[in-house]
């Protein structure tokens, strides 16, 4: 009987932990959706803290948070989230046409379908000439802020890149500038252990024609 009792106790502990993971994922989704928090790791740590949960094994995986985020958006935002997503996809299309010389690729929430009113249009641009994108924006009167970001290209290699950020028509834009050979290899996704999903202008236009504002 002691062995059977131990088995039931383990199953009960596992069930409790799954419930905690679910609670943390839902709270993280709320923080992301309602407060514009975009770092999934930071969101789940803050959610666990707010809920008073100190069990590291109860922290949900990023894909669990993304699933909870989609659920939260459907339940609480409905059409407003769809409208925000559509507006950003249309803005992405115009920006990609404007930046076509840099072979832009759409990435992130706008592509994946989880974008809301807090989301930026995130693009990867490609150039081997330092400052080329900066000069292009300046020539067209676009004022931007310059940042740096580290991308994980694979399990062993990180790449520090230049990021240009600005707001146009009340929509934020986030332009990551990668070397041209970055076209062949997408960085690792921040949510799932795989290459980041990216879309060319043609792919985005096909998405808009076939499934307006629908997730990829």
Uncertain runs: none
List the secondary-structure elements in sequence, H or E.
Answer: HHHHEHEHEEEH
In the CATH hierarchy, what is the architecture of the largest domain at level 2?
2-Layer Sandwich
Helix content: 40-55%
What separation lies between the terminal Cα atoms? 51 Å
Q: Say how many strands there are.
A: 5
Protein name: Nucleotidyltransferase
Organism: Metallibacterium scheffleri
Please name the defining characteristics of this protein.
216 residues, 5 strands, 7 helices, Nucleotidyltransferase, Beta Polymerase, domain 2
Explain what you see.
By secondary structure, the chain is of the alpha+beta class. The protein contains seven helices and five strands, in the order ααααβαβαβββα. It has two domains: 2-76, no CATH class; 79-210, Beta Polymerase, domain 2 (2-Layer Sandwich), CATH 3.30.460.10. The protein is 48% helix and 17% strand. Strands 1-2-5-4-3 form a five-stranded mixed β-sheet. The longest helix has 34 residues, at 2-35. The mean pLDDT is 86.
